[in-house]
């Protein structure tokens, strides 16, 4: 095969929409360069490697992409498989092409392993971030993957399974979200063939066996529809049968637990008309002639899917058989097949830069514009990934704002999810929700078609832990966690500041702290300013004693010395259970005579809790509850056994959170239940909202866990209590 023969298919494909000499020369130049660099390389099939990039470019040409994207498709493997450098591509073909190829190379270097969650997450993250940076990277990658799937038979079984699983989990859903139905359907069927070959062959056989009967039924119905529409004055229209791909049949059989014969939309027709008004007129005519199946009419014209799909769907009965009928315009049909690519097909008369393409896609795909926004706002790749995979790819509930804007959410989403989708500030200030004109609780499950209005208040306290149980989308949960983390940080900063000031007062010294000084002394602990230092003290990762000693220059016992002092306790003493009681906190430490001991602020241990000691980076031991989340992050060599003493008079402060329905006198009843159970209330705060939910937080002084449990039991008996939990 000559060089000209290899290039001919692409030449024919681009000639349908590219005519300018400079564009044709640019693509020819890219082909010549790729041909030279791939010279001598063969695919697993034995054919010249250059055939692969040519086929990738031909697939891209079907979507009429711009010349830069075609060139990138031709050269997408050069950085990985040849001695070509990024600078070479930039010099010869410009920065846009070089960036696309580099983005593709980064994706190629990642290997999907279904058994390794961390590797899978990396792949998703890179895919999502590459898409947000320049969506053309994904268009080339999808075309590359389609060609690889078409030639997968030449690889070994292990790689067939790995690549197919990746295709089904990552690439097909992305093609679907972009509205590229043809691409998605072929990727799904090819992957299904290799992953579940027996099921694939069985369904393919059943489709083939019924093909003759189905074609007769479809032609009969097609003739009926043609006569009907012509009789009603339609002149320009087209009717054709629709083929359902094998994997979608398999999914419907398994999700709905159906037999093959029970799948109704195997008999499906598509009516293509001229205008939107024709669509609605045609559906009325169809329903006047054939009996529609109740609940099966869907209007995706008035309410398009997030991938821009528009069509009218109905299911009717004719001669005892069930037919699915789709009615749409020519433009809608093109979008249904090509998705977003139908909107940004390259027009030589206009020209399209990278920004033009992104602006077009952002204006058409709300989720893509939101993806870009999430990428700009978040510092966490994992957070962006979760929002994309959980919220964007799985969104199929469509609700309305009071202004009529459509918001797509996942199944199970609540008004809280809706509020945070509108804006972070709206979510944080939410106090209630109105759905379809009626007040609903914040945990109300939204349904397609709901009109949602969020009530906010500038005086709202903001999210609480219970909101994490209500919110279902990754976006809302992430924003709630960020708010709570900021809130908890503020509390720990205050606690750390208070602890340091108490230590300074006990030593009768005067210290002046500066941001610069804090950073120089404690930068290895992530401290950049005074607030960071207070935060670390509040978390017990830096002790007040360490801070004072570091600033004053006095010697201090190091953590290693403290660990050594424990390890060097004579075995005889250990066997004899030498224990020292630290009466101020009622804690016994084995093997030490007089270390500083403190109860942790993060988990507030109470007599009777299972506890453990942690040697801090100063001279003290901080006692935590064993179930404290912080304990899981501590170095094991710094943990040591500690025990409760026998001081039954000491009191311990802890905090509880109560979620309760809002009603008259409920707070008074809770306070009465707590105080009547030997509990002393040091502080109480309450927040109620229009969703009939109250959040009450109490700081209690108790003598033991037994007393605390009794208090919680008494409170739980009060009418309308949703939950009680002990918190930091």
Chart the SSEs and their pairings.
Layout: H1 3-14, H2 21-37, H3 51-62, H4 67-74, H5 78-81, H6 86-93, H7 95-108, H8 117-133, H9 136-150, H10 157-177, H11 181-195, H12 197-209, H13 211-231, E1 238-241, H14 246-255, E2 268-273, H15 276-289, E3 291-292, E4 298-299, E5 312-318, E6 321-329, H16 330-338, H17 354-364, H18 366-377, H19 381-392, E7 395-400, E8 406-410, H20 415-422, H21 424-428, E9 430-435, E10 438-440, E11 452-456, H22 465-470, H23 474-507, H24 515-522, H25 530-538, H26 544-552, H27 559-567, H28 571-575, E12 579-582, E13 587-590, E14 596-599, E15 611-615, E16 620-625, E17 639-640, E18 642-644, E19 652-661, H29 666-675, E20 680-688, E21 693-702, H30 705-716, E22 721-727
Parallel strand pairs: 2-6, 14-16
Antiparallel strand pairs: 1-2, 3-5, 4-5, 5-6, 7-8, 9-10, 9-11, 12-13, 13-18, 15-16, 15-17, 19-21, 19-22, 20-21
Helix pairs in contact: 1-2, 1-3, 2-4, 3-4, 3-9, 4-7, 4-9, 6-7, 7-8, 7-9, 8-18, 8-19, 9-11, 10-11, 11-12, 12-14, 17-18, 18-19, 20-23, 23-25, 23-26, 29-30
Question: How would you describe this protein?
Answer:
- The chain is of the alpha+beta class and 728 residues long.
- Among the domains are: 3-195, Hypothetical protein af1432 (Orthogonal Bundle), CATH 1.10.3210.10; 205-341, Beta Polymerase, domain 2, CATH 3.30.460; 557-649, no CATH class; 652-727, Alpha-Beta Plaits (2-Layer Sandwich), CATH 3.30.70.
- The chain is 49% helix and 16% strand.
- The chain is built from 30 helices and 22 strands.
- The strands form six sheets. Strands 1, 2, 3, 4, 5 and 6 form a six-stranded mixed β-sheet that branches. A four-stranded mixed β-sheet has the order 14-16-15-17. A four-stranded antiparallel β-sheet has the order 20-21-19-22, with helices on one face.
- Helix 29 runs antiparallel to helix 30 (705-716).
- The longest helix is centred in the last third of the chain and has 34 residues, at 474-507.
- The protein is globular.
- The termini are far apart.
- Mean pLDDT is 82; it is low at 110-122, 556-563 and 565-578.
């Amino acid at each position: 095969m000559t060089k000209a023969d290899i290039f001919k298919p692409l030449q024919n494909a681009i000639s349908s929409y590219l005519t300018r000499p400079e564009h044709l020369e640019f693509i020819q130049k890219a082909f010549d360069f790729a041909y030279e660099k791939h010279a001598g390389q063969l695919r697993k099939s034995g054919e010249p490697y250059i055939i692969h990039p040519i086929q990738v470019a031909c697939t891209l040409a079907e979507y009429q992409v711009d010349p830069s994207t075609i060139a990138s498709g031709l050269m997408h493997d050069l950085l990985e498989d040849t001695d070509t450098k990024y600078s070479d591509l930039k010099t010869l073909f410009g920065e846009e092409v070089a960036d696309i190829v580099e983005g593709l190379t980064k994706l190629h270097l990642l290997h999907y392993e279904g058994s390794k969650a961390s590797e899978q997450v990396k792949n998703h993250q890179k895919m999502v971030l590459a898409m947000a940076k320049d969506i053309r990277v994904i268009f080339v990658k999808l075309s590359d993957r389609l060609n690889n799937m078409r030639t997968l038979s030449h690889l070994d079984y292990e790689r067939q399974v790995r690549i197919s699983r990746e295709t089904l989990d990552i690439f097909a859903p992305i093609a679907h979200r972009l509205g590229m139905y043809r691409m998605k359907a072929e990727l799904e069927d090819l992957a299904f063939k290799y992953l579940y070959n027996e099921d694939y062959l069985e369904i393919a056989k059943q489709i083939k066996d019924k093909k003759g009967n189905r074609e007769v039924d479809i032609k009969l119905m097609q003739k009926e529809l043609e006569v009907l529409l012509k009789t009603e004055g339609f002149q320009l229209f087209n009717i054709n049968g629709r083929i359902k791909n094998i994997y979608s049949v398999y999914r419907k059989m398994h999700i709905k637990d159906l037999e093959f014969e029970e799948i109704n939309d195997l008999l499906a027709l598509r009516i293509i008309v001229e205008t939107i008004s024709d669509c609605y007129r045609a559906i009325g005519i169809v329903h006047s002639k054939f009996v529609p199946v109740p609940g099966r009419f869907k209007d995706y014209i008035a309410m398009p899917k997030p991938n821009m799909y528009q069509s009218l769907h109905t299911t009717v009965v004719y001669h005892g058989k069930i037919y699915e009928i789709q009615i749409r315009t020519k433009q809608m049909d093109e979008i249904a097949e090509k998705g977003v690519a139908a909107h940004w097909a390259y027009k030589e008369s206009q020209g399209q830069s990278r920004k033009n393409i992104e602006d077009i896609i952002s204006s058409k795909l709300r989720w893509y514009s939101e993806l870009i926004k999430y990428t700009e706002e978040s510092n966490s790749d994992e957070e962006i990934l979760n929002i994309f995979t959980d919220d964007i790819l799985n969104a199929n509930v469509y609700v309305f704002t009071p202004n009529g804007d459509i918001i797509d959410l996942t199944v199970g989403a609540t008004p809280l999810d809706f509020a945070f989708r509108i804006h972070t500030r709206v979510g944080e200030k939410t106090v209630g929700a109105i759905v379809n004109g009626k007040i609903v609780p914040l945990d109300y499950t939204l349904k397609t078609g709901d009109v949602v209005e969020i009530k906010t208040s500038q005086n709202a306290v903001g999210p609480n832990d219970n909101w994490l149980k209500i919110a279902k989308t990754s976006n809302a949960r992430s924003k709630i966690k960020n708010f709570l983390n900021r809130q908890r940080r503020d509390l720990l900063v205050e606690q750390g500041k208070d602890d340091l000031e108490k230590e300074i007062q006990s030593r009768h010294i005067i210290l002046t702290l500066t941001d610069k000084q804090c950073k120089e002394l404690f930068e290895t602990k992530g401290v950049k300013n005074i607030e960071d230092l207070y935060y670390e003290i509040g978390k017990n990762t830096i002790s007040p004693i360490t801070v004072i000693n570091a600033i004053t220059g006095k010697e201090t016992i190091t953590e290693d010395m403290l660990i050594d002092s424990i390890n060097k306790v004579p075995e005889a003493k250990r066997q004899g259970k030498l224990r020292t009681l630290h009466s101020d906190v009622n804690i016994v430490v084995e093997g030490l005579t007089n270390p500083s001991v403190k109860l942790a602020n993060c988990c507030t241990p109470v007599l009777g809790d299972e506890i453990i000691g942690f040697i801090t980076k100063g001279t003290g031991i901080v006692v935590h509850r064993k179930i404290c989340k912080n304990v899981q992050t501590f170095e094991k060599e710094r943990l040591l056994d500690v025990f409760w003493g026998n001081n039954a008079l000491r009191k311990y402060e802890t905090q509880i959170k109560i979620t309760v329905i809002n009603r008259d006198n409920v707070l008074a009843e809770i306070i009465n239940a707590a105080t009547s159970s030997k509990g002393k209330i040091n502080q109480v705060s309450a927040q109620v909202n229009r969703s009939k939910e109250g959040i009450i937080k109490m700081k209690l002084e108790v003598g033991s866990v037994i007393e605390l449990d009794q208090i919680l039991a008494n409170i739980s008996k009060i009418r309308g209590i949703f939950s009680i939990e002990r918190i930091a």
